[in-house]
Amino acid sequence: xxxxxxxxxxxxxxxxxxxxxxxxxxxxxxxxxxxxxxxxxxxxxxxxxxxxxxxxxxxxxxxxxxxxxxxxxxxxxxxxxxxxxxxxxxxxxxxxxxxxxxxxxxxxxxxxxxxxxxxxxxxxxxxxxxxxxxxxxxxxxxxxxxxxxxxxxxxxxxxxxxxxxxxxxxxxxxxxxxxxxxxxxxxxxxxxxxxxxxxxxxxxxxxxxxxxxxxxxxxxxxxxxxxxxxxxxxxxxxxxxxxxxxxxxxxxxxxxxxxxxxxxxxxxxxxxxxxxxxxxxxxxxxxxxxxxxxxxxxxxxxxxxxxxxxxxxxxxxxxxxxxxxxxxxxxxxxxxxxxxxxxxxxxxxxxxxxxxxxxxxxxxxxxxxx
Amino acid sequence: xxxxxxxxxxxxxxxxxxxxxxxxxxxxxxxxxxxxxxxxxxxxxxxxxxxxxxxxxxxxxxxxxxxxxxxxxxxxxxxxxxxxxxxxxxxxxxxxxxxxxxxxxxxxxxxxxxxxxxxxxxxxxxxxxxxxxxxxxxxxxxxxxxxxxxxxxxxxxxxxxxxxxxxxxxxxxxxxxxxxxxxxxxxxxxxxxxxxxxxxxxxxxxxxxxxxxxxxxxxxxxxxxxxxxxxxxxxxxxxxxxxxxxxxxxxxxxxxxxxxxxxxxxxxxxxxxxxxxxxxxxxxxxxxxxxxxxxxx
Amino acid sequence: xxxxxxxxxxxxxxxxxxxxxxxxxxxxxxxxxxxxxxxxxxxxxxxxxxxxxxxxxxxxxxxxxxxxxxxxxxxxxxxxxxxxxxxxxxxxxxxxxxxxxxxxxxxxxxxxxxxxxxxxxxxxxxxxxxxxxxxxxxxxxxxxxxxxxxxxxxxxxxxxxxxxxxxxxxxxxxxxxxxxxxxxxxxxxxxxxxxxxxxxxxxxxxxxxxxxxxxxxxxxxxxxxxxxxxxxxxxxxxxxxxxxxxxxxxxxxxxxxxxxxxxxxxxxxxxxxxxxxxxxxxxxxxxxxxxxxxxxxxxxxxxxxxxxxxxxxxxxxxxxxxxxxxxxxxxxxxxxxxxxxxxxxxxxxxxxxxxxxxxxxxxxxxxxxxxxxxxxxxxxxxxxxxxxxxxxxxxxxxxxxxxxxxxxxxxxxxxxxxxxxxxxxxxxxxxxxxxxxxxxxxxxxxxxxxxxxxxxxxxxxxxxxxxxxxxxxxxxxxxxxxxxxxxxxxxxxxxxxxxxxxxxx
Lengths: 370, 297, 505
Hints:
The complex is a heterotrimer of chains A (370), B (297) and C (505).
Chain A: H1 2-21, E1 29-33, H2 37-55, E2 58-62, H3 68-78, E3 85-89, H4 90-98, H5 107-110, H6 120-124, E4 134-146, E5 173-176, H7 182-188, H8 197-202, H9 204-215, E6 221-224, H10 229-236, E7 241-245, H11 246-255, E8 260-275, H12 282-295, H13 298-304, E9 311-312, E10 345-347, H14 350-368
Parallel strand pairs in A: 1-2, 1-3, 5-6, 5-7, 8-10
Antiparallel strand pairs in A: 3-8, 4-7, 4-8, 4-9
Helix pairs in contact in A: 2-13, 4-14, 7-9
Chain B: H1 10-40, H2 52-55, H3 65-72, H4 74-105, H5 113-125, H6 128-140, E1 143-146, E2 149-152, H7 161-185, H8 189-197, H9 202-230, H10 234-239, H11 247-257, H12 262-291
Antiparallel strand pairs in B: 1-2
Chain C: H1 13-52, H2 58-63, H3 65-71, H4 84-100, H5 103-111, H6 117-127, H7 134-143, H8 150-158, H9 160-165, H10 167-184, H11 195-206, H12 225-232, H13 239-247, H14 255-260, E1 263-266, E2 269-272, H15 280-311, H16 314-329, H17 332-343, H18 348-356, H19 371-394, H20 399-407, H21 412-440, H22 444-449, H23 457-466, H24 471-495
Antiparallel strand pairs in C: 1-2
Helix pairs in contact in C: 3-4, 4-10, 4-11, 5-6, 7-11, 10-11, 15-16, 15-19, 15-21, 16-19, 17-19, 19-21, 20-21, 21-24, 23-24
């Protein structure tokens, strides 16, 4: 029996030692959730690194933004919020806010004013689409294609509708494994007028129409769940064209030098930004607020554009956007907002999606697995 | 089976060599993915792709930058540290509790042996995704069930180091139980009796007589438990949080979010470590056979 | 024998032996107990806890307590709308739920049963605070300023007689006061009650109750709550919506289990789901068939290897064993991504096939993002689990049997098939069930290489847990899967015995 006791004691000792070592939330540590890849490293360069240098607080990166809503709900239910700040898309921010999973903030109180004195709320303007949302960037979901796979004598694809044209552009496609953007593109390319897309999508017939259009390319499509998949598939030559975030395509083309071109037509404009989870202690909250004020000021937002081709959400940052940090090329022309790229743009209706996400998600997933 | 006999017919010869070729192909199937990983980890580009430069053996196409990334990137280093902090503790728990229980189970009269065995093996049987979610829910709000209702415990285990260690220890236990009981099946009971006869207490007997003999089983069970924890991603993704992210976690998010051959560099390092470990196990096995007086054939 | 045999200490031998046996049993149990306890707490209880979620359904009655109660009297079969008290109850519940921000979650819950409810609840949560019921508030407050006095309200609502006279008002006030304290962090004695409290007061007055200060309400034009709800969305006039709420209002439900076998609770009992929502039966069947194929592949590839290893000298066998164990010890994720590199259309295997000329360049094989991809990658991952038990069984078959059979005139084939093979069957059984059990629970590999057609039921479980947040359905699917696995385990234990699994130790 002594053996048992000895072994149990050893185990207990180890556990206690481990417990003493367990981090929980040590002072001076912050977990920031984001998307990973080039996007996270642009944040690391523009926000985290300078902030850590300035304050000595260490930042842990968690690349779980794609499951942020689920995890935040679970954390909230468990009463154990381990995240301090979460980077989400606008539609998710609205959902989180609706469910009370994100903290409502007053932009003018929390965020720094522009250098010329314009208040934060005026500087961010329309991008403050929810009380919980602190916008960071304007991005778009758009298409990249292999330039060397364009059939001879054919114009290269211009945008979303060419995805549905299997005859002119044979080959595999890659699309996002969720209904957002895909449903809109399907209707738009099926002849529905831009203004009517969301109204149509509200009806059963409209949804059926969108699915019918998607059906035409279903067996030629690889469905991605992470923005980095399309760049990999393009680099491998596995697909002819695929949708992904414009910044990822920029990195494939400009940084990795792959034979890939951009097709901007009907790019889907979207916003991305921070939300603060509810349930933080006062101390953690104060730390997050301090970080936020730093990381969303005019200069920091403009700095991020040095690393990735997303437009800053602040009006005052736009003139400060300069050249790429390592390549030295001007970034402005790679922004989704550049007039040359923005001839036909689609504005994601976040509020509509907040309402219909559950409905359409269920239908889309069922459609996919059939 | 030492070569083909001289009197074998042509058919037998064909069969003999044909069979070896088939086996060779299957071994190749087993090893092929590993053979692919190693060169790709030296890719100069940020994709999982054999570039034309690589195929032409152009030194330009190769680079050690992904190894440098692994050693310089703070996320990877955190993941490595976490893995090294979690796996040994989890293994220690599985091995200590598992060995005791295996000794208990190998006694001749154990009531409900089958049932107990089923429960102890269950972490291996229950599909991981179910275990992961179950643990997630329960560790979030742990409670003690009593006939009068639940007593909620005032803490949570998800997103904590302890939570991940407990979960991994549970997953490693079946391996320890299986390997140690298997060793104990061949264990000669008269040895412990002899020790007791000569006046050794149970503890002395255990450490001086039984332990050295069942050590290979304990070690290999422990190694399985270690690898289980070291390579486990589903449970840690649910139960852990970024503060506990392990190497597989970092690989998993890496594969989904930021496809980068750093993952392959890590894998190559791990493969090298595995090879060393496997040789250690093999050497240990030979040593134990010598100890037990079985000549290695 | 008249006298019992005695042991050395003078006790009856039988008792002494029994005592020794008891002590031995106790000793064994004491050794097992720590681990058993550990597994129970860290593993078995979590599993049960999870399975329990598949029937839990308190969310409806917790979020809409008044509506749930009011709907009990509603005859659902008449295909008619519920009457006013239900709308009144829903009004109160929804205002409160919107403040607690729990209406969206309830909407998501009910959306699993009827698509469209989620958006309905979200819209209504935004609009429900702007009903025309402020008319009642104004009427009361104009009639007597006491009705606008928070302190007066608090006093009334503390009076049991008034509470008994105004049951609806008391209930609404209590709900409001509780919400005020917990959500807004304010005190009811300092705040004017909201419109829905006055609406309840109006309803009480209409029902003939004596108001604390009587008010003439004849001049107040009644507000039709039904019309107010209709203004938000016409779906509120769809009896099916109410039916769904009523049907899923009990605290425990079989709904998730029905859902996981493509059934639903319809108007006349249990019925099949609409065709475009039927996916789970297909998935279960696919999971079974694919796991079987993987198992078959493992036998096919594992048997020769195990045979070779069992018949080589130990030293060579152990070195070759490293080739078997190496992939077994290499990260699952890495092996899976390696298969991606190998199998894709521009991948290594296709490149080689094109180079040899077996496959045309424009007609490359599709081996990934479909079932083939899943089967190849998983066969590779699970092959060691087949080889190890097979090997340990084959090691015990004396080679002399084969030689004996041959010397008795059997051909190679007959000797193998009639003598060797039957003895290796337990190993095949062990390997098969091990591989099968592990295969049906996998989800990472299918997720990465399976596309949409090569995924398993576990992928759906993972999807419901981390994306759709339908934890109840995930638990139900998990329970079914677990029952299947348990059955297999039981069969396995019967045929082979769990002790006979060796992992190359």
